[in-house]
Amino acid sequence: MLSLKFLLMLTTLSLSPRSSLASSKAWEYAKDYLVSQNIVSQRNGKISREAYAVVDNFLEEMGAHVKWLPIKGQVRGQAMKAQAQALPGHKHVGPKAGDKDWERIVANWACNVSMKGTVKATLSAIPCRRGVRRQLLADFGDYAVIRAYSAASGSVVKSQVIDFTNQDLDWVSGSIIWTSAQAQPSFQFEYRPIPDGTSWTYPISSKKSTQAGESPAVTIALFSDWATGGAQAIALMDAAIKKLSPDHVSHLGDIYYYGTKAEAEKSLYKPLKAALPARTPFWNIPGNHDYYAGGQPFYDTVDAMRREGMTQQEGSYFSLDAPGWRLIHLDTGYNSRHMTDVSNSNNNATYLPDEQLQWTLEMVKEAKAQGKRIAMFSHHQLFSMRESCAQMDDNKPSAVNYKLYQQLLPILSDIAIWFWGHEHSIQAYEPYIGLEKGRLIGASAIPVFVSKKVNEPNPDLVLPPNTTSLPKSLPGSIQSSTASFSLSGFSGFLKRSFVMLSFTSTNLTADYYEADFDCWSISNVFNKKRGTCEYSEPQKVWSETL
Q1: Is 170 a member of any domain?
Q2: Lateral strand order in the sheet of 218-223
Q3: pLDDT of 466 higher than 60
């Protein structure tokens, strides 16, 4: 008997005739610039037939599914065409045959992008890493089920199960926008070094009243990878503020898709202005996505919020002084501003600019002299059990960001806890490579399939010297868990999460919350209106005190 998943796959494919966009000039230009993107020196040559076929199949498959997203697909198709036409020349430029860098780029792209086009062609053309082929098939099955479900359930649900997943068309069109922007003569990446004579250190306090002689705890609701502007992200922020009434709200970066002016306003500024109560400051550091459009929208948003009284923040990195603690916030996004390959997997290790590194070391030295403990915050991870933090010289993925590690090694033992995002899951790590507590909290908005297996170690990651194992999850702590929303033949989504921090002169308590969601489906057809999703109140699932 045929499984429901297989039938839905067939239905999805058979009901999706190839769109005219797939053969339009916009798609031709998209192909040209996708396959030539990030070739360091432009070299005329012939791309292998197999490699080009993978890209071609991928884009044609995307064109075939434009019908599921008619408005977004058509608008983005026109945007891609306009952006491509703005570039100098349209001749296809590719690497020489046998180019190892190109082979790595294509392999990484094909092994990491979930919507693979013709699965058979992809699997036969690309020598994927161990276990990746099984992952491709699992992703494709989830993709087919979700596409069929979205078509039946309506646009409200569709926006929650398609937008910002690997099947979202906007990720690909952004590659063209990114390339086009940098082709402009006046383009430059924005970066704001700290002015001389300042430290960008801001004292923070509680807005709660207490009895005389008592010092109330300072609370911060901490999110990462949150700024999608989606209904689930906004619902999570609203629920956290309503339930917990934090003194401050902080975000560890990424405005999606590509940190443009419109996205910064839609996905960050407007939702926060509506959600934040009076006298609740917001603090924000950039991730890689905040810089893809040049970074200026990030800084413009910081300045606008400061004028509105929503923050004191002046740059992309800073420190906050709470009772007994110094909270150092780093900008790791600037040196991750280039899409390093067409899969956007950021394999080149990010690092701190020299002046920011010196500022960081000075902030730690000063805090220690004042008897303060240190909590570190960044968008990018120092290490991971699952995703590559850097590309090694032999092109193998590293479990550790060796550049950041080398820079911060002199102060690593002084850091009581380090929170980061970038990976869209949540994880509390055992001590590793000299860091006592590494905490991944990047699951505040981006939808992630359970089939991604984010809680399982990746055996392909290269270990750092003098270690015998990958980073391990702290026993009995927090890991991403599965949301209630389910369909027959679908592995499911992970829940969204955030952290509530409470600082006193002696302790830091970190409470970890997850929020469930459920949408209309066959199993609950009598309980929910067609085309609707519901978001549950966040629940505390783990806590730790330092």
Answers
A1: yes
A2: 282-284, 248-251, 218-223, 496-503, 508-515, 539-545
A3: yes
